[in-house]
Design a protein that fits this description.
Shape of chain A: elongated
Number of strands of chain B: 3
Largest sheet of chain A: 7 strands, mixed
Strand order of the largest sheet of chain B: 1-2-3
Low-confidence stretches of chain B: 1-15
Number of helices of chain B: 15
Strand content of chain A: 15-25%
Radius of gyration of chain A: 33 Å
Helix content of chain B: 55-70%
Mean pLDDT of chain A: 87
Oligomer: heterodimer
Order of helices and strands of chain B: HHHHHEEEHHHHHHHHHH
Distance between the termini of chain A: 89 Å
Structural class of chain B: mainly alpha
Largest sheet of chain B: 3 strands, antiparallel
Shape of chain B: globular
Strand content of chain B: under 5%
Structural class of chain A: alpha+beta
Low-confidence stretches of chain A: 195-203
Chain lengths: ~700, ~400
Amino acid sequence: MNPRTHFRLVVLYVLVGALLLVLVGRMWTLQVLEGEHYREIAAQNRTRDIVVPAVRGMILDDRGRPLVRNRSALVVSVDRTTLSRLDDGGEAVLKRLAGVLGTTYDDISKRIRLCSPTVKRPCWPGSPYQPIPVDDHVDPKRALQIMERQEDFPGVTAQIQAVRDYPEPEGASAAQVLGYLQPVTQDELDKRKGLKVTGYSGVDLVGRAGLEAQYDRALRGEPGYRRVLVDSQGRVTGTAEEQQPTSGSNLVTSIDAGVQGAAEKALKHAIDNARKGGKPADAGAAVVMDVRTGHMVAMASYPTYDPAIWTGGISQEKYDALLGKKNGEPLISRVTQGQFAPGSTFKISSVAAAVKDGASLKGIYPCPGSYNVGNRAFSNAGGTGYGPMTLHTALVKSCDTVFYRFAYLEWKADGGMHPKKNPSDPMVKMARQYGFGKKTGIDLPSESAGRIPDREWKRNYWEATKAANCKGAKEGYPEVAKTDPARAAYLKAVATENCTEGYVWRPGDAANFSVGQGNVLVTPLQLARAYAALANGGKLLTPRLGVAIVRPDGTVVQRIQPPPAEKLPVDQKVLKYIRNALAQVPKEGTAAGAFGGFDFKRVDVGGKTGTAEVYGKQDTSWFASFGPVKNPRFAVVVMVSQGGFGASTAAPAVREIWEAMYGTKDRKPILKDGKLPSELPRMPGQGAAP
Amino acid sequence: MIAGTGVGPVEGYGARRTWRGRLAGLRRLDWPLFVAVLALSVVGALLVRSATFHLLAEQGKDPESMLKRHVLNLLIGFLLGGIVTVLDYRLLRAYVPILYGVACVGLLAVLTPLGSTINGSHSWIVLGGGFQVQPSEFAKVGLVVLLAMILGEPRDGEIGPGRRDVLLALVLAGVPGVLIMLQPDLGTTLVFIAVVLGMLAISGAQKRWLAGLVGGGALAGAAVWFFGLLKDYQVDRFIAFLHPEADPRGAGYNAQQARIAVGSGGVLGKGLFNGEQTGGHFVPEQQTDFIFTVAGEELGFVGAAVIVVLLGVVLWRGLRIATQAADLFGTLVATGVVCWLGFQAFENIGMTIGIMPITGLPLPFISYGGSATFANMIAFGLLQAVHVRRHAFD
């Protein structure tokens, strides 16, 4: 053997020895040094955590009637992860599944694709790692086919799950109050502590609006889990550990299904009647508030929808309909999110401000047909003058010029076009003290604040619109001038004024403000709260829907306490004076027609009509009321957008609600002696099995 | 089949010898090598049973059926090895062209519709009746003998093969090499490279040939990587090798599960047939490519180390045989077998414990599989044949 070969053979010896040593060394680290670590991983490897969903709590009315409960449904879900590992991406499985469920492959594959800005519903908005429900109305026979032939349906499960059910007791839907559930997103799952990967889809829904969102944590409960032993195919071979879920708590609300149902019906009637009278009546709200506690007894919003459509995935068509302007955006609660000029209902604030500013309750004030504010004449509705009158009469007859005069005089006292350093602005201040211009703090998400347009607001608005106004002032409106030169000239004049001195708090602004016009916007809830404060002697309460959180067995977890009430800085004497004035409105004032034949002995109702002008639209119809006048319990407010006069559209709806609560000679009252239940209700059972 | 072509001449050759002479030859066998291979085969059979009986029982089949087949394969393998042992290996030179031709035809056939894909690798020819053959396994035998013949006869006065011999060897090795790459079978390709490099080195070829081959190989490897010539799954496997946690359900799954199985075995293991990972079929291909995980889990570090030591004995004896061979041809045959079995064992065990990327190679003498067992046993026979005749020409 030549030396070169011999030498190289020796090298090969060494090389082989070295490689074998590397193997043994690596095995030593893996098996001896890290053995314990891998034993742990191996144990996890052989187990899977299956989440056992907690039953979501019910939302109950004040008597324990479920507004939302659960029903058991057979839900067929598809696991994307399993499907994606199949050779054909699961196409064959989905085709078989479509056959069993009586739908198409196209339909199912659309339902399980992931939503994105470009992918529209039907699609899955939740986490891609959880089973996606494709059908929750499966009949047991079909579900059995899927469960028995698992080898034909890898990644497809059929399980009994609890889905939301809306029994609508007494016809009360309260859709916007209750809100809805949507699948949890992966982001939210990542943020949530504890179990993340779940075997069920029902547990991974989150309240997205209304009470479902506000009280999501209490309603959700704690899911349990079962740790099962599995082989590599995921076949369960035994159970290692088990923890029962803790079902969610029930939420007892102050909504009274009877009153809620009546309010929804009354609102619908008002809308229908307004439409019969040729008004668009595109939206509306009806609110009933307990003036002693701030509890909301009814909150109806129009247009509305059936919340059951959220269950089990929603089609793009239906989703668009819910969000779209064309269908009036039924998801938006007009009670808490609708902002409208309040019109004359606002005068309870303005009159209190005038009195506070020195106007005597015993004084007599002129009510001409029109009143000159600065260089512009402001008129009563219809231009009618009523001669000198008391403030009482001014409220009963809803005389605007009385308030224009107050506003103008106050404006002048504040320095007019050259305001003092700290103008007193009594009407603005009073409006804020009545709770307008800021959120009421009700236990619902996405509340609107309304708008109290004051000097600061006007300056901000001027700065935001200055550029456009100054352009108009400079260039005029040639497009408009082609058809209507007079209007173009007017627009140019307005633009010029707005451009140069648009920030100035002008007398017209003050005058419009005094009668709830111009840029004043309130939500129906804010108005109800203000009338509640008027009725209860000056307590500005925080509206509350939640009364208590109660375990299904009746244990009270929490009584929901609203924040302390604010004090309305108005003398009791003044409040009483206003109440007495408003008590005459349905009897002999602007709402006398609507309340003709009303049984005031049963319940003495006081209220105020409001007809707010909206540029380019029909008037907003309002009626805000409280009662009984001597011992007030409730404030009831109805608003119909583009509904015409307050007296003709909103007032009859308010009357209908009062008559429903207190009854008439032909109709049994919903409330016994006008009282709400004072005790927490007993907890009802869940809905029936499918 | 390559093995079949070897049967004829053996009888003709044997006929000229007495039975006594043959037995005298057997007495000169390398017994440590024999014992190591026998021990590995027994351990392998037990591991094959452990890896298969759960699944077979679950599928309602005879739980011992795979074991039975494996034992049958082993018996045939030992018979083949025995035949090769008694054969005068130098006579093989006469049959190398036939061996080589059959190997190439077999590999070509795999690429035609005759070939079929089993477990993701297009390496088989199904013969029917439940039999299939993997020509690439036998091609390894062919390669070793071919290279030994070309490189084993340097011209007078030279201590290594000349340029023409080296080039011829590379070209002839390249043909089946490319055919295997086309299957694609990365593992066997790597075995081919290891064998060519090892045999060239030992044959005494100039250093520049070796350096050139290694450098050229590295360049070619880089080119393959950057120009995307690898199949997606091969790239995935390589990435999974570097980052096994990246995709534990996809490409990294095998690597991860293999590591868990081996690691969880600890020092002494969970006991033969008691592996939980094995019983739950978490590691795929466990009776073939990943059989070492069964050993790791059930026999622990101690048992797995014994297997490595037994393989070490085989390689040590192989190298010893190469050193003591009667001629360069014998040295090269033994070297080729050592490089083949050594690299394959290192790659196979290495991939289960995460130091080598995953390729589809069985563990010599341990894994289930007919063609591989036969080829390994023929290699074993070649070593014995060289050993038996180490003094033949003194």
